[in-house]
Amino acid sequence: MPMSTMSVINLLNRLKVKEVGAVKEQVVDFGFNEGLALVKASMKSTTVLTDIFIEKKELCFGP
After folding, report:
1. Where would I find the H helices in 1-63?
2. Which InterPro entries match (predicted)?
């Protein structure tokens, strides 16, 4: 279910987003193993999605 406009505005304010034009939607497909790796990485970093999808870091996708 899509978020309401007010919910999106509140979320952007809470995340201290200053330039809304810089925000972009990104759809990502991944399997069970990648999902598990994301959960593990979330225990090591507070910026997991940024680390993995924006900065392309390998937090725990290794062997």
Report:
1. 5-14, 32-42, 48-49
2. DUF674
C-alpha 41/C-alpha 61 separation (Å) is 9
The whole-angstrom separation of Cα 4 and Cα 12 is 12
How confident is the model at residue 1, as a pLDDT? 57
CA gyration radius for the chain? 14
32-61 pLDDT, tens per residue? 988 888 888 888 888 887 777 665 545 445
In this structure, are residues 11 and 3 in contact, taking their beta carbons and an 8 Å threshold? Answer: yes
pTM: predicted TM-score of the whole model, two decimal places: 0.43
- In one-letter notation, the amino acid at residue 12 is L
